[in-house]
Amino acid sequence: MSLTLYYHPLASYCWKAVIALYENQTPFEAHLVNLSDPGERAQLLALWPIGKFPVLRDHTRGQMIPEATIIIEYLTQYYPGRSPLLAADADVARETRLIDRFYDLYVHEPMQRIVGDKLRPDGKHDPLGVEQARAQLETSYDFLEQRMVDRCWAMGDSFCLADCAAAPALYYANRVAPLGEHRNLAAYLRRLHERESFSRVFAEAQPYLHMFPG
């Protein structure tokens, strides 16, 4: 098989890449990486010295592609499927990248800061950092709530790169900072859950979700 994805079913950024693969029914080999195993960690580091997943290997083209957004753009370019995840129109593509970045930087990242603080040892917590992360999430929720007033998906009627980013970001953020009165955003998260690609990823994560410290 041409494509191998190094990932873990619990990892939120891995969800983003796998959703894109499932969305277009792109054949790939899933290589689960256990970072607590020194041999498996060393194998991942040999591919990508940063040591984070997902990482995609394209054996046919001899390419190694890290980072979920870049993986999805690579798939769009070289393994396009039934549903283009990035529009050909340059202006639409630019806005799609903006919303993808918004979910990663202003929903996903503050969520991870809150979760990361839960994993810190006693005496090493960062209450100010957590407070700032929660404030960022509230600001982000407000922006997205207004954006989703008249949209089915992140960019309108078609599922795209930005939705792949939104699904894990919103799911995990809602676990640590509930969406509350953000009804449009909550409805969007329900639609994401009902999407076949995301429901499949979520089902595969079930055996590991008890490990999430949120």
Quick structural summary:
The protein has helices at residues 12-23, 38-47, 68-78, 90-118, 127-147, 161-176, 183-194, 196-205; strands at residues 3-7, 29-32, 55-58, 63-66. It is an alpha+beta fold and 214 residues long. The longest helix is centred in the middle third of the chain and has 29 residues, at 90-118.
What are the SSEs and their pairings?
Blueprint: E1 3-7, H1 12-23, E2 29-32, H2 38-47, E3 55-58, E4 63-66, H3 68-78, H4 90-118, H5 127-147, H6 161-176, H7 183-194, H8 196-205
Parallel strand pairs: 1-2
Antiparallel strand pairs: 1-3, 3-4
Number of strands: 4
Report the uncertain regions.
none
Write down the Rg. Answer: 17 Å
Find the structural class using helix and strand composition.
alpha+beta
Text of the CATH class of the largest domain: Mainly Alpha
The major pleated sheet works out as:
4 strands, mixed
H and E order: EHEHEEHHHHHH
Query: What distance separates the N and C termini?
Result: 36 Å
Major β-sheet strand ordering: 2-1-3-4
Descriptors for this entry?
4 strands, 2 domains, 8 helices, Glutathione S-transferase Yfyf (Class Pi), Chain A, domain 2, four-stranded mixed β-sheet
Structure description:
It is globular and about 45 Å long. The longest helix is centred in the middle third of the chain and has 29 residues, at 90-118. The model has no long low-confidence stretch (mean pLDDT 96). 57% of the residues lie in helices and 8% in strands. With 214 residues, it is α+β, with helices and mostly antiparallel strands. Strand 3 (55-58) and strand 4 (63-66) form a beta hairpin. Helix 4 packs parallel to helix 6.
